[in-house]
Design brief:
- With 123 residues, this protein is of the alpha/beta class.
- The protein has one domain (4-120).
- 39% of the residues lie in helices and 13% in strands.
- The longest helix has 14 residues, at 62-75.
Length: 123
């Protein structure tokens, strides 16, 4: 199996990225559509506005944010379909989730990657 990677959308695209998925509900600030190299925009699996605003990029709220977001993913029918898509794409190459937030450690894409890796064990 290939790698599931995460990368800021503002970072330079590389051949290693493979299939690129924008994993944000909102379009990245300051970017034109022509500036963003992506194959798919997965806005339906991003955190809801309510839990995103409650988190407010505060690392001290990461545990609660993780619990709320995982709960949303587990209840979201689009998330199961998304896991299948990622699995299919990983069978042929790397998949990279791209995101806009500045914090590379405390963000929803880290949670999404971990959740997807757990789902892949069941697919």
């Amino acid at each position: 199996m290939h790698e599931l990677l995460i990368k800021r959308v503002y970072s330079t695209e590389s051949a290693e990225d493979g299939y690129r998925i924008l994993a944000d509900r909102l379009w990245p600030r300051g970017m034109r559509k022509s500036d963003v190299s992506m194959n798919y925009w997965a806005r339906d699996i991003a955190p809801s506005t309510a839990i995103r605003k409650a988190f407010n990029h505060d690392p001290s709220k990461m545990d609660a944010f993780r619990a709320n977001y995982v709960n949303e993913l587990n209840q979201n029918p689009a998330a199961a379909d998304f896991a299948v898509l990622v699995s299919e794409k990983l069978s042929t190459g790397n998949v990279t989730f791209v995101y806009g937030t500045k914090d590379e450690i405390h963000n929803h894409v880290v949670i999404l990657r971990d959740w997807i890796l757990d789902q892949l064990q069941d697919i």
